[in-house]
Amino acid sequence: MVLLSGGLDSYTAAALARAEGFRLCALTIKYGQRHAREIEAARAVAAALGVARHIELEVNLAAFGGSSLTSDTPVPKDRSIDVTEIPSTYVPARNTVFLALALGWAEVLGSRDIFIGVNALDYSGYPDCRPEFIAAFERLASLATAEGVQGTRFRVHAPLQALTKAEIIRKGLDLGLDYGLTHSCYDPNPDGRPCQRCDSCTLRAAGFAQVGITDPVARP
């Protein structure tokens, strides 16, 4: 079971799962995000990975608000990548909601392994990307499911947790991934091109620069 957003990180995490021999089922959440272009990217990535099944599930977190990703609040631009305070692009409890949904489908499918592309180094201050959160959710999975109380152990894999963006990109390139399929921008232009100024674009650009190659989606 992989949470697949269509971004660089989730694509790489899913590819690492496939490389380990897992048969992939992918879950993409339409949560009212302003960067809905990533849904199209998730479809392309799922096809490239040859997933066994891909569900696009609509859970409209925009009804709650509380984030510039799910409202008309401006997305922060041109910030330093070293800033770690929680930004307005944080979506309240998003990864908790996403993992809960993935856990529910995993239990139905008889899957015991959930992959998520969170990262604790090159990230924008999100509390639900930390190792402590992933470990806590893994414990919760054993308490909150019928399979768990019967002794089955669910594992939440976060293979990118301790990697820099450059290291993630290198792993993906070693696996032959086409990052031109992905979309990372929080506030894309009307034609879908990345803004190249939001936190996500900045981190992605820095990663490709450190690897020494041109990002295939960073068109002028």
Task: Note down, in words, how this protein is organized.
The chain is mostly helical. The protein has a single domain, classed as HUPs (Rossmann fold), CATH 3.40.50.620. Helices cover 37% and strands 9% of the residues. The chain contains seven helices and five strands. The protein has helices spanning 8-19, 37-49, 94-109, 131-144, 146-149, 165-174, 199-211, and strands spanning 2-3, 25-30, 53-58, 113-115, 155-157. The strands form two sheets. The protein has a three-stranded parallel β-sheet, sandwiched between helices. A two-stranded parallel sheet has the order 4-5. The longest helix has 16 residues, at 94-109. The protein is globular, with a radius of gyration of 17 Å. It starts with a strand and ends in a 9-residue tail after the last helix. 40% of the residues are buried. The mean pLDDT is 93.
Strand-and-helix sequence, N→C?
A: EHEHEHEHHEHH
Helix content: 25-40%
**What is the CATH topology descriptor?**
Rossmann fold
How many domain units? 1
Number of helical stretches of at least 4 residues: 7
Name of the CATH architecture: 3-Layer(aba) Sandwich
- What is the total tally of β strands? 5
* CATH homologous superfamily placement: HUPs
Strand order of the largest sheet: 1-2-3
- Report the end-to-end length measured between terminal Cα atoms: 36 Å
Low-confidence stretches: none
Mean pLDDT: 93
Radius of gyration equals 17 Å
How is the biggest beta sheet arranged? 3 strands, parallel
Structural class: mainly alpha
Shape: globular
Proportion of residues in β-strands: 5-15%
- Name of the CATH first level: Alpha Beta
